[in-house]
Design goal:
This protein is an all-alpha fold. The protein has helices at about 1-25, 30-40, 45-50, 60-70, 80-90, 100-120, 130-180, 185-195, 200-215, 220-230, 235-250, 255-314. α6 runs antiparallel to α7 (about 130-180), α10 packs antiparallel against α11 and α11 (about 235-250) packs antiparallel against α12 (about 255-314). The longest helix is centred in the last third of the chain and has 61 residues, at about 255-314.
Length: about 325
């Protein structure tokens, strides 16, 4: 039995190695080699600087290793790289090798879960002795591991959007103050980003990137719409639309920003009232399961004990 388990695990490890080799060979196709050479030539300067830095911290080294794996095994297709890059930008990851890190992370997590399934699959009672079950378990663990980084990225995006939505009315109030003081839009956005650096780093980061894009002298509408696309909130889209229309038609920005700030705060109050209204129905089930039995036990318990004592005497 031990010999059969050994050869079964060896066959599973061999199949995992073959799948990894297939990914490597697929990544070394002609089109992939051209894309990899372009990325390497683009990142050669940054890689040489990173190699010359002696005090590189451990997370950066780990990210570099994972990015290397992602470049050698491009599990993200070329047509999907733009979508993955947009999602990474929404999560605050705008580095050049962010997509490569994401690809490498998918491979590493998938391979790690597959190895764990190989190691633990034989210890499952009854069905763990079947080779076909262990193969399916390894394949399922690998697929789940490939999907986990995507779900983690979605969680980071949702958490970031929630933090931005909470701090957005304060940012609008600061923009109103800055524009009332006579500052231009770029200067006002930079000042608001500086003030929000401690309160809400995600919103400060987005405003800093937008201010830098506006300072380059390009199309301001494109820079503002890019910020709205990265954040993905309806309130930010309304803010961008207001700013673009004010710049297009020459209307004053201050009054529009003040109106937006009031609207955003009223929407937050409505959302809080909705949560408060939903609290009573949500508390009904926990009260029935945990509080009501305790109250009933306290109320009925002494009478039940006395009745038991009376029946025992009789």
């Amino acid at each position: 039995m031990m010999n059969a388990d050994f050869w079964g695990n060896a066959a599973l490890l061999l199949s995992l190695a073959v799948a990894t080799l297939w990914l490597v060979l697929r990544g070394t196709s002609k089109r992939a080699r051209i894309a990899q050479r372009v990325r390497q030539s683009t990142l050669r300067g940054s890689n040489s600087v990173a190699a010359s830095t002696a005090a590189m911290n451990v997370p950066k080294r780990l990210a570099t290793r994972v990015a290397t794996i992602g470049e050698r095994m491009p599990v993200v297709q070329a047509e999907d790289r733009a979508k993955v890059a947009a999602r990474l930008a929404s999560a605050g990851f705008r580095e050049r090798r962010a997509v490569a890190v994401m690809s490498g992370l998918k491979v590493v997590v998938g391979a790690g879960l597959a190895l764990g399934a190989i190691a633990l699959g034989g210890h499952i009672p009854k069905i763990g002795q079947f080779f076909a079950f262990r193969v399916l378990l390894m394949a399922g663990a690998f697929v789940i591991g490939m999907m986990l980084p995507e779900h983690g990225l979605g969680f980071v995006i949702r958490r970031r959007r929630k933090a931005i939505a909470v701090a957005l009315p304060d940012a609008l109030d600061l923009l109103v103050i800055c524009t009332n003081a006579g500052n231009s839009l770029v200067v006002a956005i930079k000042r608001v980003a500086t003030e929000l650096r401690v309160i809400c780093p995600p919103l400060a980061d987005e405003l800093s990137v937008t201010a830098d894009e506006l300072s380059m002298g390009g199309d301001s509408g494109l820079a503002l719409h890019a910020m709205a696309a990265r954040i993905g909130l309806p309130s930010v889209r309304a803010l961008v639309t207001t700013l673009v229309q004010a710049q297009k038609y020459g209307t004053p920005i201050t009054q529009a920003l003040r109106t937006l700030s009031r609207t955003e705060r009223s929407m937050q109050m409505v959302a809080l009232e909705e949560k408060a209204a939903k609290l009573a129905p949500k508390m009904t089930l926990p009260m029935m399961l945990f509080i009501m039995p305790t109250v009933a036990l306290i109320a009925v318990g002494p009478a039940a004990i006395r009745l038991i004592a009376v029946f025992r005497h009789h």
